[in-house]
Amino acid sequence: MTSLLSKRLVSVLGVCFLLFFVATANAKQALKAVATVDENSAQWQQTLKAATGQSVYLYAWGGSKAVNEYLRWATREIAQQYRIKLIHVKVTDPSEPVSRLKAENGRTSAIDLMWVNGENFAYLKQQGFLLGNLWSDIPNAVFLAVDNLPITVDFGEPMHGFEVPWGIGQFNLIAEDGVYQQPQVNAKSLLEIAKNNPTTVTYPRPPEFHGTTFLKQFLVDLTDADPRLYQSATTQAQEELLPVLWQYLDQLHPYLWQQGKAFPSSAAEQLLLYQQKTLSMAVSFNPNQWLKEKSTQQISESSVRRYFTDGAITNSHNLAIPKSAPSPEAAKVVINFMLSEKAQKEKFTGVWGDPSVITSLFDEKATMPAHPELHSSWHVVIEDAWQQRYGG
Amino acid sequence: MAATIRRIGLASGWLLVSLISLLPILGIVVGLWPPEQITFADIRPFLAYQGLSTSVFMTLFSAIFSTLISLYIAFMVYSQYHLSRRLQSFEKYLAPLLSLPHLAVALGLVFLFSNGSLFFVDSGLPRKGLSTLIIAIVIKEVPFFLLIFSAIGRQLPIKYWLLQGKALGYQDYRCWWFLVFPPLLKQSRLALLAATAYTLSVVDISFLVGPNIPELFAVSMYRWQTSFGIGDQALAFWANVLLLGLLVLSIVALYAHEKLLFIACKNWAVLGSTIRLGIINRLFVAWLPMTGVLTLLMVMVFALWSFGANWQTDGNLLASLHTRLWQDEWLFFSLPLQNSVLIGLVAGLLGVACALLALELQRRRGVYLPDYYWLLAILLPQLSMVLGWQVSHIWLEGSYHSAWIILSHLPFTFAYAYLVLKGPFQSIEPRYELLAASFGYSYWQCWYKVRFRLLLPAVLSAFAISFSVSVAQYIPTLMIGAGRVTTITTEAVAIGTGSQQDVMALYILLQSVLPFVAFLMAALLAQRFRGSVDVKAH
Amino acid sequence: MLKLIDCQIDATGWEIKIPDIQLGKGELLVITGPSGIGKSTLLHWLLGNIPRHVNISGKILIDDIDVSQQAIERRHIGLLMQDVYLFPHLSVQDNICFALPKDTHFSSKKQRRIEAMRMLEQINLAHLGERYPQNLSGGERSRVGLVRALANKPKVMLLDEPFAALDPTNREQVGRWAFQQLAQQHIPSIMVTHDKNDIPESAKQLNLADFFHQKDQHQISLDRNNP
User: Fold this and answer.
1) B7 and chain A: CB distance < 8 Å anywhere?
2) 3-state DSSP call for residue C135?
């Protein structure tokens, strides 16, 4: 009798063990969704060796002092740690490296590493200008917080290893506390605020991407996050969903800065206007910009951060390597460093404040509730239609 | 033997000069070569672009209007300063006015005068509008024309025309308008054209202070050219074509203006007209001091910004100043500054030398090629042209050495030097060289000792302008240098797209230092070398 | 009629006390003297072009009206210089039209042009009417210059070495013709010249050297000994 019981117990226990074993094994696999090379593997060691003494030309926007300082820090660290010379080529327009790659047309490029996202990435990927398998070739890619953040897809275009996320962007408003008293805003509340504080509200002129994103937030709010916005924009969907936005804007524009007859040309210009107290709000993709600007006394003490009720539209900004880069190994080592905990921490806590993309530093509390990006086709549709309606 | 050497010398001279002047054509042909199939069907979406006609009209209007206004203002100022003993060489006062980059003037202007400004009463100047754009451009263009007039005026017997005119009973200001303006205008053609072409295609100022509903044409064109969405490249192609068309229209407009003015002045002269039109000349004595004060204000504002002046803190403004930024950034701007100086010096010198060569070769031939040919670098759309150079440079597998950058600046320095030097060069009395030859000097000795020496003040101005043009070049340095060679301008433009006032101000000031030194030195040196008519005849 | 009273040229170290001058209608005064003494400067001062390096004082009376303080454009004094300075952007005809007095009875362009051509015809230069100054010979230029100056109907005419650029035959011809014109139109004139052959018989002469004397000669010789 006991032997039968114990036999059953053992089998039950055994099954439990098996299940547990399988479960943990599967769990490990779920955590290791990013299959990548190990740091100590021969392949990576070889890359490290080839990279020593090389220079890496990083083409990244040079307009932000915070980013420039961060990159200067990174240059020092990388030089010390890997004996690689990182050179920051200050770019004015994100399309500059793209046109250069296009002009080079496959020849050895001047670019080793570039900061890229959105439609530029889509173009480069489709034209085959980018080096692939980045995720699987770079060890620290294993720490990418793919479970918590929507960072495998860039603007509707799957990354497929052609670029690596570097930081997160979440659309938010930097605003005067006295005027924007609620922690969240929506289309209705903004219209009220604009009416009560005329000529202090505005947005960057589309197709500047902050401006377009602002419009997207409105669209999401006014159509109650209609599911068609996350799919390819059909003519019918456009006809049904866009007029709501135009009706709203027609109401809003007369209360805007310059009565909607002129708009700031860029988010940076709008921030300047906000600093000069002409406007009561500015826009940003960096969730921590308001804190950093405040701490360096660039903006007033009473500035706060506001986001849309539906959640802040979130995307990632990324690093990519051209296929014809002269020092791809060194570029990979640089990316590896950029994904390391040290670098991501410095990026987040230092002057820049750009949120991290790796799991260990992922902080739910620091980020705002996220809202996924609309399908990329809507981006173009909104820009063209706005130009048609308000741009001339 | 000597004849063969001379022939070879001449031929190689022509070769060199042709190469430089053909570079722009090469650039535009390669740059505009449609990569994908561009059909005439693509014109339709281009023409259907919302606001295109308003945009084009505004662009054309602002270009021609600002150029003409600057011309008239500059002339009136010139009439007040030309014979004034104290300010005879007023060029040195032009130096600060000429050195602030265009964008800085626009930025300073909106900061000081538009709504929300912290110092001054809101003067109604819109933050983004056509009037702001025109004012910003006029402020920069007037000193440029003054410099040109100064160079031309040295070779003209203006003093005696005025004397004769007055002896015939005409008042001072009438003499200026009827007698001096027409010849001066004729010789300023190139400068007018260059100014108009610049305003037609300037992107950064249009972006910052120009209207944006609709945007100026240059901005839309820049957007299309730098976007890689479907169909955008086709739009960019047609936009370039349209820009060339606008350029032709501008040339026609300026030519018509010149003709009309000649007819008007002639009629007034023939009629012995007592028209009181030019009486406001006198008011313009104030122009230089006014713009001087304005520039000083702007420089002060930028300096304050760079020292960390912060209007957020309600405390004492002066107490919050510090030199930390300058100390921190010193490490980072010393190299770009050096690059700018080196490239500017070489490109400037070569540009002036080639311009003199081109003028001399044409003089020997007796035939002067049309001006537009020599100025192509300034007239053709810069972005497409440099793109063509970039493609050729990559195809030739050129390195990223400064030498290539100097080569890419050369067409521009050459064009500006040519336009400054042409008028004075042609006005030099050939008899001086004849005399020198009769004393036994060889051709080139005469040329150097007489013609060059007479031209020296103009040459110095031309060099200062060429140097500044090279320092201010952004697109060629970036596209050919692939970011390897940083100049103070590439850094400044990149920083300028941000929102950090203090760093922006610092780089603006740095950008201004180099041209300032160049213009000041040119003015001081020119004072020591007189032109042919400056000397009192008796 | 021109009267010059109490005229004096003052410079550092020397001065010229010019005797009072009275010129009637059509009379010619020729001022001579070594070069550099200030002949042209004096002429320009008379015109109203105040010199800077010397101080000239005196009273100028034209038809008994004091014009010493008036601006150049109001004095009705004509000037003909060696280099003539015809305006390059105007044709010969237009250069003359420009000089025609404003307050005359030819007010329309056409009338003025006709008048200009008439003046050119009188001296057989009508064929030059449409030409531009660059395409004229030296002699033609001088003649046109004089016609232009005369067209303005000045009260006094100043000539600053006007024929110096011409060859001897031309010089004689043009000179004779010029003085004839001036006498005919009863205009008192003052001429500065180096060449004795230019001076017609009937002209009064004034040699500035005769009235030149050094100031403080004693002072100057002392300075020479103590550099």
Assistant:
1) no
2) helix
In a domain, C129, yes or no: yes
Residues C159 and C51 in one domain: yes
Whether C56 and C66 share a structural domain: yes
Tokens describing residue B486: 């940083």
Q: B161 is written with which tokens?
A: 């025309």
User: Which of the two residues, B88 and B398, has the higher pLDDT score?
Assistant: B398
Q: Which residue has the tokens 């083409």?
A: A59
Q: Which residue out of C73, C77, C112, C146 would a mutagenesis test of the B interface target, given it has the greatest number of B Cβ atoms within 10 Å?
A: C73
Residue B469 is predicted with a pLDDT of: 92
Residue B437: predicted pLDDT:
74
Mean pLDDT for the stretch of residues C167-171:
81
- What residue numbers bound the domain in which C182 lies? 2-86+152-214
Which of residues 68 through 97 in chain A touch B, CB cutoff 8 A? 72, 89-93, 95-96
Q: CA geometry: angle at A149 spanning A145 and A154, to 5°?
A: 110
Helices (H), A128-202: 134-137, 187-196
pTM of the model: 0.83
Q: Is the pLDDT score of B538 beyond 50?
A: no
- CA–CA separation, B176 vs C70, rounded Å? 20
Are C25 and C66 contained in the same domain?
yes
Residues from chain A that touch B228, judged by Cβ atoms under 8 A, are 95, 98-99, 102, 119-120, 123
- Taking only residues 145 to 204 of chain A, the set having a beta carbon closer than 8 angstroms to any beta carbon of chain B reads none
Nearest CA-CA distance, residue B196 and chain A, Å: 24
Residue C79: give its domain's CATH number: 3.40.50.300
Reading chain A (392 residues) residue by residue, the pLDDT tens digits are 455 666 666 555 555 444 444 444 444 443 445 677 887 888 899 999 999 999 999 999 988 889 999 999 999 999 999 999 999 999 888 888 998 898 888 888 999 999 987 778 888 998 999 999 899 899 998 888 887 777 888 877 888 989 999 998 999 999 999 999 999 999 999 999 999 999 999 999 998 889 999 999 999 999 998 888 888 888 999 999 999 999 999 999 999 998 988 999 999 999 988 988 889 999 999 999 998 888 888 888 889 999 999 999 988 899 999 999 999 999 999 999 999 999 999 999 998 999 889 888 887 766 788 888 888 888 889 998 999 899 87
> What is each CA distance from A144 to A331, A356, A359, in whole angstroms?
18, 9, 6
- CA atoms of C96 and C175, how far apart (whole Å): 20
Tokens 């349209």 — which residue?
Answer: B242
Retrieve residue B428's tokens.
């030099």
Does residue B16 come out as left (phi exceeding 0), alpha (psi in the -120 to 50 range) or beta? Answer: alpha
Q: Is residue C29 part of a domain?
A: yes
Q: Are residues C63 and C113 in the same domain?
A: no
Cross-chain residue pair B116–A278, CB shorter than 8 Å: yes
Residue in C71, C74, C87 closest to B161 by CB: C87
Rounded CA separation C35/B478 (Å): 63
Read off the tokens for A175.
Answer: 């605003």
Please check whether residue C146 lies inside any domain of the structure: no
Cβ B157–C83 below 8 Å, yes or no?
yes
Query: A82 vs chain B: nearest CA distance in angstroms?
Result: 22
Q: Which residue of B has its CA nearest to C108?
A: B271
- What is the model's pLDDT at position A85? 94
Does residue A364 sit at the B interface (CB-CB below 8 Å)? no
Number of structural domains found in chain C: 2
C172 located within any domain: yes
Touching A: B residues 292-311, CB under 8 Å: 310-311
Cβ of A110 and B482 within 8 Å? Answer: yes
Within an 8 Å CB–CB cutoff, is residue B207 touching chain A?
yes
For B228, the closest of A90, A91, A120 (CB atoms) is: A120
Are B496 and A63 a contacting pair at CB < 8 A?
Answer: yes
